[in-house]
Amino acid sequence: MAGESKLIAIIGATASGKSALAMQLARELGGEILSVDSMQVYREMDIGTAKPTSDERDAVKHHLIDVVSPSETFTAARFVEMADAVIADAAKHGVPLIAVGGTPLYFKSLFVGMFAGPGANDLIRGRLRKLENSELHRMLTAIDPPAAQRIHLNDTKRLIRALEVHELTGHPISSLQTQWGVLLPRHEAVWIGLHWDPDAINRRINGRVKQMIDAGWVDESKRLREKYGPLSPTAAEATGYSLLLDHIAGRISLDDAIEQIKIATRQLARRQMKWFRRFPNVKWIAGDAAHSTQSLLQ
Q: pLDDT (tens digit, 9 = 90+) per residue, 81-127?
């Protein structure tokens, strides 16, 4: 990277304190923040995606937040294209940039490269969507045990993609994805990871869900439904919104929706850490010890 610019990547599970650390570093370094979050790209999905506040965004410039409508589909490829431009501009002007977020696929695509698999096949996907997740997982276990072990039973999108790739290429997706691990880094960065013990992160998640509900998450979901109707397939993947929309439609009580959101968020946190733990050259620190920023960059 040119000049005195620095690129710092902060990773960790949801509710681990990544955004607070990024703000602290950005203030101390005079830098800007690149959001690596697949849901904060959506306008008006603010509370449920834990976006930085307006005061935080006034204090530190943030990139790739509020870039598309909730009715639009947003892909990892589009993210990489936009993020590359942000990184290039920061390097050109010598501005420190802190990349922070909880979307492992976006991090891996940005820093290592996109998996060059076959394009989507609507016929195959339509057929697979008719099957239960248990059957999808059983099929994947039969043809690609490593992928089946890595992909959670509830992760319908990735189960279908793995089966689709095998059907189109005749090769398991796990063998094709090995190319990801051998490519040269697309961007050099200092990597910092935040970790908590399971009980602690679960308490933080439960507390944050309560804060989001108290802040008006239900009303936010109602406004989204009234303005946009069904969310786009990618926006609908945001944890919690579909459950709150079910509550608004009278299909589930608010208490049940909140409890299921907590469970889903805890499951998300485990999946995030499973991915992030594979990333090389990360300086992992305890989440409750992420206060001395100077030592983090040494």
A: 999 999 999 999 999 999 999 999 899 989 988 766 777 888 999 99
Closest among 168, 170, 117, 103 to 143, alpha carbons compared = 170
The beta-carbon contacts of 24-27 under 8 Å, at least 24 apart in sequence, are 24/293, 25/96, 25/98, 25/293, 25/296, 26/60, 26/96, 26/98, 27/59, 27/60
Between CA 212 and CA 106, with CA 108 as vertex, the angle to 5 degrees is 40
On whether the CB atoms of residues 136 and 109 are closer than 8 A, the answer is no
CATH 1.10.10.10 correct for 122-181: no
Pairwise CA distance, residues 233 & 197, whole Å: 33
Which among 232, 235, 251 is positioned nearest to 243, based on CA atoms? 251
Whether 87 and 97 have beta carbons less than 8 Å apart is answered as yes
Number of Cα atoms under 13 Å in the Cβ half of residue 148: 16
Q: How far apart are CA 189 and CA 7, in angstroms?
A: 5
* DSSP string for 134-189: HHHHHHHHHH-HHHHHHS-TT-HHHHHHHHHHHHHHSS-HHHHGGGGGGSPPSS--
Q: Which residue in this structure is represented by tokens 């889903």?
A: 264
Domain coordinates in residue numbering, the chain: 7-113+186-296, 122-181
Task: From 105, 68, 71, 94, select the one nearest 4 (Cα to Cα).
Answer: 94
Which class does domain 7-113+186-296 fall in?
A: alpha beta
| pLDDT score recorded for residue 3 | 42
Give dist(CA 54, CA 80) in Å, integer.
Answer: 25
